[in-house]
Structures are given as structure tokens and as C-alpha cells.
């Protein structure tokens, strides 16, 4: 699904050239559940932005579902993000004046999906995520965990093959974090490919594969052979 080769991204900070990504080679298969960790400045957020087609490399190659991303024009790039990638953020990014259902349906606003089918898909997603009685509530009427579930439903509304999550439990308490990660595990068990950036070891423990970054490089890439430890689930 994802293949990068010699991926590089550099930024000037004053007179200093920072190598945010330094010749990164990475492959992610369909059905993977990958956690990316690393200290501040390690390159994990830059990698997330690159894989989400929100930034472009200075050097190297990024192929998403067989397509070389550098070959896409702006219109094709926007279409790729909308159809193939779902984003989940730490801060939810819900529009405060819209209901939960309206927020979920936002990515379909400019699609050719029939409005009635879109409504039905959104309602089924919210029901699946345990929010059937919260569809008409606005974000300020929802708990943090409920808002993140709405954000996850919005990310899934286009049925994207890839879900990118940036610190998805960063604003949640421990109990709600466990609920969200159990939801991610359920989605992955159903075939959803997930790549998640986190700074919490107990959250990363839910992933099948752990990547550690430092100074723009992949320092460690480990495939787990077991389910998340029980202490990470409670």
C-alpha cells in the first residue's frame, strides 16, 4: 500500500538546515497497524504529513497504492487524499455549528455520492461507533471520547484504504483512550490499514508493528508477534 525510497525533507531553521526526513525507506502492507514513535524533532510528524500527501519530499519516492505521488497534479492529489486517506487528529477538528452527522458527512460534500446514500452511510457509521443517540448533537454537547469517535467516523466515511492518526488519544483520559484504541483494533481486525503517531508506549502497544524514529531516520522497525499486553487494555 505504501512504499517510500530515500525520502528526504529538509527545513531551514535560521541558518541551520534540519533534516526532518533523512533517506527514509518504508513499506506498509494492506492490513498493517503501525505505530510511529520518537522524541520531538525525530521526524514522525513530517513523515505523517508526507504519507498523508500534505507535504512533498525534497528527494526520494513515495508510492501510494502503486501511484507515484510526485506525478500527481494538485487536483489529482486532492482526489487521492479524499478517496484513499482518512485523517484522525488529536484536536478532533470538528466544526462547532454542525451536528455529529453533518461533521461526518463533510468529506462527501463535493463527491458524487447520492445524498441519501451518504446520509445512510453516515448514520450506519455513527451507529457502529456507538453514537446512534448522538447524531444530532453538536461537538460542545459531546464528551471528548464521543468527539473523537465522530472524527473517526468522518475519516472512514469515504471508506479509505488508509487511516492516518496523529496522537488520536492525546486529549483523552486513560479510560477513553483505551476505548478508542480498542475501536482501532476492531477496525484493523476488519482489514483497515492504520498508521498512528503517538508518544505513549501503552498506546503504541496496540499496534502490530512499532517504528521508532530519531533525527529523521528510522531507528527501529519491529513487528509484534502478540496482541497488546493486558495492562495496555485496562
Task: From the structure above, extract its key features.
single chain, 234 residues, alpha/beta, Rossmann fold, six-stranded mixed beta sheet, four-stranded antiparallel beta sheet, 8 helices, 10 strands, 28% strand, globular, disordered C terminus
What does this structure look like?
The protein is of the alpha/beta class and 234 residues long. It has one domain: P-loop containing nucleotide triphosphate hydrolases (Rossmann fold, 3-Layer(aba) Sandwich). α6 links the parallel β7 and β8. α5 packs parallel to α6. The relative contact order is 0.19. The C terminus is likely disordered.
Explain briefly what this protein structure is.
The protein has one domain: P-loop containing nucleotide triphosphate hydrolases (Rossmann fold).
Q: Number of DSSP helices?
A: 8
CATH superfamily membership:
P-loop containing nucleotide triphosphate hydrolases
Number of strands: 10
Strand order of the largest sheet: 6-7-8-3-9-10
Percent helix range = 25-40%
**Residue runs with pLDDT of under 50 for 5 or more positions:** 228-234
CATH architecture grouping: 3-Layer(aba) Sandwich
> CATH first level: which class?
Alpha Beta
Structural class: alpha/beta
How large, in whole angstroms, is the Cα Rg? 18 Å
Looking at CATH, which topology would you report?
Rossmann fold
Query: What is the arithmetic mean of pLDDT?
Result: 91
Largest sheet: 6 strands, mixed
The tally of structural domains comes to 1
Order of helices and strands: EEEHEEHEHHHEHEHEEH
Distance between the termini: 32 Å
Shape: globular
Share of β-strand residues: 25-35%
Amino acid at each position: 500500500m505504501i512504499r517510500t525510497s530515500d525520502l528526504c525533507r529538509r527545513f531551514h531553521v535560521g541558518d541551520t538546515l534540519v533534516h526532518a526526513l533523512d533517506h527514509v525507506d518504508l513499506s506498509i502492507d494492506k492490513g498493517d497497524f503501525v505505530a510511529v514513535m520518537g522524541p520531538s524533532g525525530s521526524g514522525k510528524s513530517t513523515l505523517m504529513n508526507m504519507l498523508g500527501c500534505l507535504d512533498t519530499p525534497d528527494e526520494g519516492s513515495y508510492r501510494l497504492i502503486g501511484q507515484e505521488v510526485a506525478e500527481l497534479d494538485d487536483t489529482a492529489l486532492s482526489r487521492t487524499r479524499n478517496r484513499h486517506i482518512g485523517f484522525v487528529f488529536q484536536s478532533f477538528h470538528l466544526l462547532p455549528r454542525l451536528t455529529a452527522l453533518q461533521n461526518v458527512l463533510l468529506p462527501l460534500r463535493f463527491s458524487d455520492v447520492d445524498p441519501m446514500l451518504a446520509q445512510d452511510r453516515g448514520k450506519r457509521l455513527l451507529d457502529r461507533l456507538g453514537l446512534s443517540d448522538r447524531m444530532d448533537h453538536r461537538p460542545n454537547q459531546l464528551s471528548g471520547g464521543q468527539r473523537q469517535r465522530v472524527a473517526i467516523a468522518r475519516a472512514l466515511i469515504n471508506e479509505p484504504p488508509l487511516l492516518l492518526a496523529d496522537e488520536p488519544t492525546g486529549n483523552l483520559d486513560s479510560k477513553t483512550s483505551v476505548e478508542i484504541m480498542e475501536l482501532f483494533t476492531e477496525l484493523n481486525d476488519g482489514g483497515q490499514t492504520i498508521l498512528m503517531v503517538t508518544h505513549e508506549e501503552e498506546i503504541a502497544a496496540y499496534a502490530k508493528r512499532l517504528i521508532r524514529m530519531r533525527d529523521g531516520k528510522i531507528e527501529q522497525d519491529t513487528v509484534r508477534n502478540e496482541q497488546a499486553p493486558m495492562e495496555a487494555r485496562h
